[in-house]
Specification:
The chain is built from two helices and nine strands; from the N terminus they run H-E-H-E-E-E-E-E-E-E-E. The protein is of the alpha+beta class.
């Protein structure tokens, strides 16, 4: 016998461990906002997001991603390849977003949970909550409407 044979190939084991860490983090992030979740200031929000692209999920499902630019400009995608441009501003301690194809303000209260953002729609505990799943420097993938053959 020339040595013990590996039961799990190392790359497969690493992939399983990565998936388990992701699932544990996702489980932690899907819990509703609690008193331990700290609301963040507008200045903190701006410092965290400017120049970044954040991916968001809701109830364990990918929801969308937003690219944050200087001067409070944004680009949103539901991860379908189409993007919409917009901007954000502050109103009543909430951060409100207006997009070119959604002119009515979409206002959110942002919290920090474990170093990641949690957003509650119009600060209503019964409403939609989004949680950050990824933060990166790269741009969104925006193919545009009806691109292809």
């Amino acid at each position: 016998m020339e040595g013990a044979r590996q039961i799990w190939p190392r790359p497969a084991l690493r992939a399983i461990l990565r998936a388990m860490r992701f699932l544990i983090a996702l489980l932690f992030l899907t819990l509703p906002a609690t008193a331990a979740d700290r609301p963040i200031s507008v200045e903190e929000f701006e410092a965290l997001v400017t120049g970044k692209t954040l991916s968001y999920a809701s109830q364990g499902t990918e929801y969308g991603a937003e690219e944050y630019f200087e001067n409070r400009r944004v680009r949103w995608s539901f991860l379908d390849g189409e993007c919409t441009e917009g901007h954000w501003y502050v109103q009543n301690e909430q951060i409100c977003f207006v997009y070119e194809d959604i002119p009515s303000p979409q206002c959110w209260q942002f919290f920090l949970r474990g170093g990641r953002l949690l957003a509650r729609f119009e600060n209503d505990p019964a409403a939609t909550e989004l949680y950050e799943t990824r933060r990166r420097s790269g741009p969104l993938q925006c193919l545009g409407p009806e691109v292809g053959v």
